[in-house]
Write a structure and sequence with these properties.
Elements lengths: L2 E4 L9 E7 L6 E2 L4 E7 L2 E6 L4 E6 L6 E3 L3 E6 L13 E2 L3 H5 L2 E2 L14 H8 L27 H10 L17 H12 L9 H4 L22 H16 L2 E9 L1 H16 L7 H14 L5 E4 L4 E4 L5 E3 L1 E2 L4 E2 L2 E2 L7 H17 L12 E5 L18 E5 L3 E7 L2 E15 L5 H16 L1 H7 L1
Parallel strand pairs: 1-9, 14-18, 18-19
Antiparallel strand pairs: 1-8, 2-4, 2-7, 3-6, 4-5, 5-10, 6-8, 11-21, 12-13, 14-17, 15-16, 19-21, 20-21
Helix pairs in contact: 3-4, 8-9, 8-10, 8-11
Length: about 450
Amino acid sequence: MPVEYEMPELAESVIEGEIVKWLVKEGDHVKQDQPFVEVMTDKVTVEVPSPYEGILLKQVAKEGEVVPIGKPIAIFGKEGETLGEHAAPAPTTAKPETAAKAQPAASESSKAAPAQEPAAAKTAATGAGNGQAGAVAPSETAILGPGGRPLAAPAIRKFAREKGVDLNRVRGSGEGGRIRREDIERVAAAGSGAPASGAPQTARTAPAPVARPLPAPSGETERVPLRGLRRVIADHMVHSKHTAAHTLHVDEADVSELVAMRAHAKEAAAERGIKLTYLPFFVKAACLALKRHPFMNASLDDEKHEIIVKKDYNIGIAANTDAGLVVPVVHQADHKTIFELAAEIAELADKARAGKLAHDEITGGTFTITNVGSVGGLFTFPVINWPEVGILGTHSIQPRPVVRDGQIVIRQMTYLSISFDHRVVDGALAAQFVKDVASALAAPDVMLMEG
């Protein structure tokens, strides 16, 4: 009897995955533990091994489709079996040890893939990403994000599945139409005939948004599907902008002593096979400043209205790759030396470019640094890596004339920018944080003694 293979839970807290690429065609023979499909969860792509040996009878989910955990993505059968014998669902998932064998693979999202139906229509029909369609208020329509999915946090999507509510049928009462827990409770109660206590009534009667088609483009164009890493980035950036109250502060730092220290230490680093950049020093300075200003190393629980102050200092390093931006995390960065930080940052960057980052290497971050110095520009206003409350932008180091003791002298200067969530961090705190980072960089010998 043919069996269905469900989207496996490849990592803790992951509730859905995107089919990036099928590695096996329908009708092909598959060996047990043979990778047969590439799935992206968050910003990590993994090759999923088959728990069976037999024939891949059907690819239930198409490339580019986002499928919730537990929903079927493929149907397997033995030699000679057909789909006609698949009378009733026989769901099964990979054994835990099999799923654990999934190894990261380079993302193929940039390769051409067949066109597919619009994501909004697809999720409305199948409930993909939003749970089973259950008790709903048919008059409500969700506001969709750029990825064609309702605006909702992962915890809200999970809550909706538990309640049997289709998020496409929920009108969000949050900022920009974002769906909140109360909205799910309201719709679930409406479906059972009971009113939800404390539910906002205006959300139920709000008119549905009118989809406005893009004007016909003039001239030659190319349409590239928004999928894979690009889709994840788009969803994450929109969620951050709709959630955090982004604010910018910029300061400058005199890093003349740092430039001299790095130049002196480069040879010693090279003897250990380490390429010494300025980034490890920025990480060390950020850790010291975070310890002085713990609310910069925090996140905000919107549902419970609590600020969660983190006691670990796990620094995300924004890395540009051919597929898009990823943020690998240096865990326990405050406990590592400059050489250790340099080696780990280089290793994570290589994995990011090859698409081989593991899930635990991109999760658990408490604060992020984005280094645009190699690209150029004066300074940047980066988007906060939600749910963190701050991201530090570091920039190119240039010799500039400055006034010291009444004299104009040439010093090695750089700009530091901080994007912060004004719901948690006040402007004075953010300014002092950047000032402390600048002071640490200005006196790197003292910084290393403190660290």
